[in-house]
Design brief:
By secondary structure, this protein is of the alpha+beta class. The chain has 11 helices and 10 strands. The strands form 3 sheets. Strands 4-7-8-9-10 form a 5-stranded mixed beta sheet. Strands 1-3-2 form a 3-stranded antiparallel beta sheet. A hairpin with a 4-residue loop joins β5 and β6. The N and C termini lie far apart (42 Å).
């Protein structure tokens, strides 16, 4: 059965009583965005080790109208063989509000493939931080420091990271801006649209003027993680970085390598 928002809009029964595990899943999705079932399983694996039970519970939450399966996932390669991707429905957000958790204003937005990839990256970073005994700090908490917006005003235009987060370790805090390349941005563009060249120039201004401190109120230096869909695009980006003389405070990786080395990237 297709558990889409259209299907769920027909449900009008009272909200169900949610388990502690279900609330954890909803909170995780609220924080990051749409995620595959194996991410949700891993997030609560320490207390619930049965994967089959996890999948049954996710299906039940869909039947109750709390979660839905975004139909855009069926456009992904090998879609019928991939784990289902889940997200919060309107009823799911209502259930969180009933539990005292507000709708997250800093979830990734945009086209589904991009927001899904961004969600997977930050979710995996949070789970890796937990494994290491560290704390993941979401964008909403950071922006509350100075009641600021995600967008950083610049001399010309503004810089809007795909996501913002921090990691608290025993040694202190590290703050990160995340950029996820889906292979659609041009290397350079004469217009004001986003391009590699324009993005590098914007981050150079942020770093040189320490705008992350004045705008966000961060005391820790900001590091940018930039993930690429292909090595060729990463190499092109590196060439531009050298030309514009932006060498520090940016971590470059392909998405594939990032998945394998997330523990090293954020340590």
């Amino acid at each position: 059965m297709e558990y889409t928002q259209k299907h769920l809009s027909k449900l009008n029964q009272p909200l169900p009583r949610l388990t502690e595990r279900a609330i954890k899943w909803l909170t995780f999705l609220n924080r990051h965005g749409p995620l595959p079932s194996h991410y949700l399983y891993e997030y609560t694996r320490a207390t619930h080790r049965c994967k089959d039970t996890c999948l049954r519970n996710l299906k039940t939450l869909c039947e109750q109208g709390i979660l839905y399966r975004p139909p855009q996932q069926m456009n992904f390669p090998n879609a019928p063989f991939n784990p289902y991707i889940y997200d919060l429905s309107d009823r799911g957000h209502a259930a969180l509000i009933e539990a005292g958790i507000e709708k997250n204003p800093t979830r990734p937005t945009g086209h589904f493939p991009h927001l899904h990839m961004t969600a997977c990256v930050t979710a995996s970073i949070e789970m890796e931080a937990i494994k290491a005994g560290n704390e993941y700090i979401e964008a909403k908490t950071i922006l509350a420091l100075k009641d600021s917006a995600l967008a950083i005003p610049l001399k010309s235009g503004k810089l809007i990271p795909d996501q913002l987060f921090a990691i608290k370790t025993t040694l202190g805090y590290r703050a990160y801006a995340l950029e996820v390349d889906r292979g659609t941005e041009p290397i350079a563009s004469p217009a004001m649209r986003k391009s590699y060249q324009r993005s590098i120039e914007q981050y150079k201004e942020v770093f040189e003027q320490e705008l992350s401190k004045t705008h966000y109120g961060l005391t820790a230096p900001l590091i940018c993680i930039w993930l690429f869909s292909k090595k060729t695009r990463l190499r092109a980006f590196e060439v531009l970085m050298k030309e514009i003389k932006l060498q520090n405070k940016i971590i470059l990786e392909t998405y594939e390598n990032y998945v394998l080395n997330v523990h090293r990237i954020i340590r």
